[in-house]
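Good morning C.,

I know you're traveling, so I'll keep this short. The sequence:
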Amino acid sequence: MSIKQELQQLKNRLNKSQVKLNAARSRGDDPMVTKFTDEIEDLTKKVNQLTHKQSYTLNKERKALLDMPFSREITKQEQADMGKLKKSVRGLVVVHPLTKLGKELKLEVVTGFAPKQF
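The tokens, ready to paste straight into the viewer:
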């Protein structure tokens, strides 16, 4: 399972536990209140760990792209035939500005990163 899916599942479980906690508080059921508060603490801890891991991997990938010696904007014509471009340039990584990585790099246009000039 991907980090994104796992994170979504944990957040869903967290929301369910919070709803159950509110119901237990309204009933005055102390054992259930402590059970759900403990569960909420565990789930928030796991969510925080996963978000940290996600940001760490994104930052690691961003640094790897910035370390590549050459980058330039990909023209519309090149975007139309991306397969041909990727075959002609070894190690080309194309980043779209609307992806998480593109937003992290603050890109405004589709950009290609490569180990040598293309």
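Safe travels,
E.
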